[in-house]
Amino acid sequence: MSTKRERVNVIGAGVVGLTTGLVLQRNGYQVKIIAEHWPGDFNIYYTSPWAGAFIRPEPKLDERGKKFEEVSYKTLWSLSYMNDTGVIRIPNVDMYTYDLQINGEPWLKGIYHKFQVIPKDKLPKDVEYGISYVTVSMDVPKYLRWLLNQFTNAGGKTEKVHLNHLNDAFEPGVDIIVNCTGINARTLGGVDDDKVFPIRGQLVAVWAPHVKTAKTLSHEDNTRTYIIPREDGEVILGGTLDVNEIDGTPDPKTAESILNRCAKLCPELHQGKGLSSLQIIRHTVGLRPARKDGIRLEAEISRNSAGNNVIVCHNYGHGSSGYSKSWGSAIEVLELIKSASQAEISKL
User: Fold this and answer.
1) What beta strand segments (E) does 208-295 contain?
2) Across 113-133, average pLDDT
3) Which of 21, 130, 206, 298 would staple 95 via disulfide (CB 3.0–4.6 Å)?
4) Cα–Cα distance, 131 to 258 (Å, whole number)
5) Which residues are annotated as a binding site?
6) Are 327 and 19 in contact (CB under 8 A)?
7) Which keywords annotate this record (predicted)?
């Protein structure tokens, strides 16, 4: 629980900002989330609504990354048993066309339910490594609304506003600012992080309620084909990794490539009737808020206009792992704020 510092302004209402705000509100802080875009809005720079949104183990994570992923996976797993969260449990087959060079040892063994390495002779041709496990998938609009409702039901406040500068979040009585601006951290005054960059991703949503298993095929050049079932019968097909591209218009040739790749990976997608039989719900393009050095998660002391010390904690740069590391990084923000608060108190 907070002691000296009780009021917090969180900037940003994407999955990271909402989760961080909820964690802090539940832990005794009085939180207000400040953002221009909210669940239900669709803007290319509001990146969370466009995500595929499921958790898969990332190979060769550092210890902090593993911790964030584990915390998020376990939290979302528990949410999958609750109504109205939009979170479901799904089996996943995860394959690689190259040798991960992990000596057969999974990087998060014992964390994922029913986790097993697939024997090489059971893998498709040209696939070098494969694992299977049960993971979680999120119906993005429903899950974001659930986060926001949980936050406000817990007493959290909201304000819809565009901020030009970090200092705009410094209000009288607010001692802590948490910066969860994602891709907008590149242009927000007072942050101006030139390490932040967009990775454009194109998806195709189809109606295929018979598909119950997620599948992913990763290549050494970091390209990836994936199939993600959602709660309501939609299946998300992807994807692309277009670094420093921001065009929000879906490309027909790219969509065709995605459909062909996904049909090859998952022939049951069209039930033997051909791609033309697929019911396409929509084509979407979103941006991943990536950062050159990975997630920026650190606390610093700044001064407000009254000359008082303010804790500023940064939590952005999640790239394609916003959903899969949201709970873990939010818990880290809580710990960073506690540590910074104690350091300030000790100076008194």
Assistant:
1) 214-218, 224-229, 234-238, 242-243, 279-291
2) 92
3) 130
4) 22
5) 47-48, 181, 226, 288
6) yes
7) FAD, Flavoprotein, Oxidoreductase
Where are the domains positioned within the chain? 1-53+139-195+292-348
- C-alpha 162/C-alpha 150 separation (Å) is 23
Q: Taking the complete model, does pTM exceed 0.90, yes or no?
A: yes
Q: What is the mean pLDDT of residues 171-188?
A: 95
Residues 6 or more apart whose CB falls under 8 angstroms from that of 25 comprise 31, 151, 154, 155, 156
- Angle of helix 15-26 relative to helix 140-153, nearest 10 degrees, comes to 30
Task: State the CATH class of domain 1-53+139-195+292-348.
Answer: alpha beta
Mean pLDDT, residues 174-186: 96
Q: Are 38 and 160 in contact (CB under 8 A)?
A: yes
Rounded to an integer, what distance in angstroms lies between the CA atom of residue 328 and that of residue 75? Answer: 9
Chain-centre distance for alpha carbon 165:
24
Annotated binding-site residue numbers for FAD:
47-48, 181
Cα–Cα separations (whole angstroms), residue 84 to 79, 147, 154, 231, 316: 9, 10, 17, 10, 27
| Residues contributing to the annotated binding site for D-dopa | 226, 288
